[in-house]
Amino acid sequence: MIASIEQLDGMAAEYKQKTGAYSKIVKICCGTGCISSGALRVYEKLNEAIAAERLTDKVLVKKTGCHGLCERGPIIVFGDDEILYQTVGKRNLDDDIRLLLKTVKDGTVVENLLYKGEDKTKRHVSPRDIPFYAGQTRVVLALNGVLDPEDIGEYISFGGYRAVHKALQMDPVQIIEWIQKSGLRGRGGGGFLTGTKWRSCRDASGEPRYVIANGDEGDPGAFMDRSLMEGNPHAVIEGMIIGGYAIGSNHGFIYVRDEYPLAVHRLSIAIEKAKEQGLLGANIFNSGFGFDIKIYRGGGAFVCGESTALMSSIEGKTGEPRAKYIHTVEKGLWDKPSNLNNVETWACVPHIINRGWEWFDSIGTPQSKGTKVFSLVGKVKNTGLVEVPMGITLNEIIFKLGGGIQGDKRFKAVQTGGPSGGCIPGEYLDMPVDFDSLTKLGSMMGSGGMIVMDERDCMVDVARYFLKFLVDESCGKCTPCREGVRRMFEIVDNICKGNGLKGDVEHLEELARAIQLGSLCALGQSAPNPVLSTIKYFRDEYNIHIEQKRCPAGVCKALTTFTIDPEKCTGCMRCAPECPVACISGEKKKVHTIDRSKCIKCGTCYDVCRFGAVKYE
Amino acid sequence: MEVDTAAINTIIDKYGKDKSYLLAMFQDVQRQYRYLPKEAIQYICDRLHIPFSKGYEVATFYASLSLTPRGRHTVHVCLGTACHLRGGPNILDTFERELNIKKGETTENGLFTLESVNCLGACALAPLVRIDGQDYGKTTPGSVKKIINEYGESS
Ligand SMILES: Cc1cc2nc3c(=O)[nH]c(=O)nc-3n(C[C@H](O)[C@H](O)[C@H](O)COP(=O)(O)O)c2cc1C
Ligand code: SF4
Ligand code: SF4
Ligand code: SF4
Ligand code: FES
Ligand code: FES
User: Fold this and answer.
1) What is A371-454's CATH number, 3.10.20.600, 3.40.50.970, 3.40.50.10540, 1.10.260.40?
2) Cβ pair A528, A572 in contact under 8 A
3) Helices and strands (H and E) in chain B: how many
4) Do A221 and B21 touch (CB under 8 A)?
5) Residue A85, strand partner residues
6) Is residue B67 part of a domain?
7) What is the pLDDT of residues A165-182, one digit of tens each?
8) A220/B118 Cβ within 8 A
9) A5-134 in CATH: which number?
């Protein structure tokens, strides 16, 4: 049990001593991404090998959360960022274990497992040398990939729960002032000032009050919150305890989407351990303040990320939003004052308390403070999670950290803000990334999804994709959203199928206005954004689909045919076995041909041909 | 169908008979039966003193609950944005063709149910497939055939 700062420090010292006794520390990423790439088997095998060598007392092998470079997983880091190995065990597990053992024994750096630079010649030993990491400012993610998320002692040894202790010595109103002055804005989508929200909830009448963490992460293509909950769950818990104390609430809830079983598992362990240590429960640090946290799982409904729907879901009901003329800070969960923040917002709080609001305020732009985690995915070379100061340009994120576009294709657009956001074209790559700039461009910050698209992506298809998503996810409570979005989908779907009519684009714009005005919740109100932003920046592409019945990117199946250029085909036989319907024929070193009647236009042959022989039109 | 009331009671009691955990109870039942039998909804509603219609409404609202029996393995093909752009739809097509069923259906031998999902949170490994909790990253039409065989053989 920890009831005083001395005891907290004592536990930290004990852990430091314990880890200090090992001559080597090996950190194996066991986040969702790396587990799917085989990390758990690497962990087991390496432990066996180390035991066989009787090195168990000297070498500490620990499971950590996501390092952000999931694409190159399983990721292993030696010591304090000394060596980063990637794709460990992907070629041959036993061979790689032998190589790892070499590093374990005498520090030999195994070239084969290092991260290769974009020019393929330079190999980076330390993650600090990899441009993907070197350009980041890791605050919220600082301990992700460093500590074992299932061990509370580790978190404490890195200064964990000190912020709770400090906050409990402060006046609750002063904490809210700090959060306000830090400029922290919500990381879940709207960018609302966190301090203002806390104050309204504190000032609202009614007991008890509730604080809630939104871990629903419905934005498809985003996984910041997942990594945080899996990789450093105590940071979220710590933030919530401080928030509860400031707002005057003793009850916390974390709502996690059903698709994240590992996050639920790690959070449950973290809550249990915090309770055991007295850091959750009654009378934390002998302050008289008590706080508990319960976990609720979602049910695969995107709309449940919306504040009122989320609260209704925690109450055990269907997740339908309600009108917000009564704010949830006044009447939220069970009609009591409730304060909802995104999990990343919560994880910022301990840092602000520890380092002071001035420190947070010094990072970022005048209106957007601090750092933000982005999920950089799609057609970019280095996909993964990046944490950067607000105000950095899209260019820096995509080309410096992300290394540019895969296969050196042409950049076309970057989608931010998920189904409520929009597509931003190349002209605006020098725009700073902050709440207001992105909104000005017709997109939004959202929760931090950043999906990069290249010349092979069709903007009309992207609009169609988001509309389909929203048709499926609309709760159906109000007509403009339920019927309007469906109608928009039908129009765009027809355009993709070659049945577009003149005037369709204008019709879409009209419908969009009606839906924006007439929808009850932000899902409907922002549903037209993906369509409007693609019309705004890529109107030509719509017109070509409608007037010329062509899809310039070769995505819309009804408007595309694939052929093989006999001049360029070398007969390398690469494409034929990859074709899912086996409609490519040809012999070795002879020109191949596509049977158009069977081709399902999947584009696989185009992607695999190294000689540029496959064409689409 | 007959449901095992003892097992369901254990689930209800685990959540302290708290109505707000209705969805969680349904999910736990589903984990046992691979779907949510109507009889189980009825039983839980009775014990929690809520009308069946309310329970049924919840059961049909949440996409992760299934009221029809599912196959031994549930295949979730991710169609989130990252997976969509990296060939997710082709992966779904391939599963549909290879298993000879459409999305939402179960194979005749009861081995596979095919579903799509909007993001599993491992977007850097797109396109992603999850089968019974096991994730497969960077899938291709070719690897789909291998994955299907893996499950076909082991059962
Ligand atoms: C349809 C819809 C889905 C949303 N999904 C999420 C989500 O998955 N995670 C999240 O934190 N916020 C989501 N939001 C925003 C929340 O309603 C809410 O503004 C946010 O959680 C507040 O926390 P913050 O102030 O810390 O950002 C969603 C909003 C809408 C309208
Ligand atoms: S806008 Fe759409 S999602 Fe929101 S309440 Fe209305 S129908 Fe439901
Ligand atoms: S587009 Fe797909 S189906 Fe058509 S020939 Fe190429 S690989 Fe085969
Ligand atoms: S991959 Fe390209 S070059 Fe090789 S056989 Fe196919 S079309 Fe010809
Ligand atoms: S899960 Fe290992 S780097 Fe993300
Ligand atoms: S979009 Fe498929 S895992 Fe996120």
Assistant:
1) 3.10.20.600
2) no
3) 7, 4
4) no
5) A76, A114
6) no
7) 999 999 999 999 999 999
8) yes
9) 3.40.30.10
Whether the predicted pLDDT of A359 surpasses 80: yes
- The two three-digit tokens of residue B28, written as one number: 């736990």
pLDDT-based confidence at residue A122 (cuts at 50, 70, 90): confident
Judge whether B136 lies within some domain: yes
**For B61, nearest residue in chain A (alpha carbons):** A318
Taking the model in full, what pTM does it have? 0.95
Architecture of domain A152-361: 3-Layer(aba) Sandwich (3.40)
For chain A, say whether B118 makes contact (Cβ under 8 Å).
Answer: yes
Element (DSSP H or E) covering residue B58: helix B52-61
Phi-psi region of A425 (alpha: psi -120 to 50; beta: other; left: phi over 0): beta
User: ipTM score of the complex?
Assistant: 0.95
CATH of domain A561-616: 3.30.70.20
Residue A407 CB neighbours (<10 A): 10
DSSP 8-state assignment for residue A93 = H
List, edge to edge, every strand of the sheet that includes A210-215.
A292-297, A251-256, A210-215, A338-342
Q: Which residue type sits at A300?
A: G
On whether the A459-548 domain is CATH 1.50.10.10, my answer is: no
Separation between Cα atoms, residue A275 and residue A289, nearest integer Å: 14
In order of A375, A376, A439, B23, the CA distances from A224 in angstroms are 6, 10, 21, 25
Reported as a single tens digit per residue, the pLDDT across B37-84 is: 999 999 999 999 999 999 999 999 999 999 999 999 999 999 999 999
Full domain range(s) for residue B53: 5-61
Tokens of A250: 């003793």
Q: How confident is the model over A38-74, as pLDDT tens digits?
A: 999 999 999 999 999 999 999 999 999 999 999 999 9
Q: CA A263 to CA A356: how far, in whole Å?
A: 29
Q: What is the CA radius of gyration of chain B?
A: 17
Tell me if A449 sits within 8 A of A217, measured CB to CB.
Answer: no
Same domain, B46 and B20: yes
* Nearest-CA residue for atom 3 of ligand 4: A569
How far is residue A59's CA from residue A50's CA, in Å, rounded to a whole number?
A: 8
Tokens of A346: 């919560």
Give me Rg for the CA atoms of chain A: 26
Which residues in chain B are contacts of A259 at CB distance < 8 A?
A: 117, 119-121
Quick: pLDDT tens for B86-129: 999 999 999 999 999 999 999 999 999 999 999 999 999 999 99
Residue B53, chain A, CB below 8 Å: the answer is: no
Asked if the model's pLDDT at residue B155 lies above 70, the reply is no
| For chain A, domain boundaries | 5-134, 152-361, 371-454, 459-548, 561-616
Say what the pLDDT of residue A119 is.
63
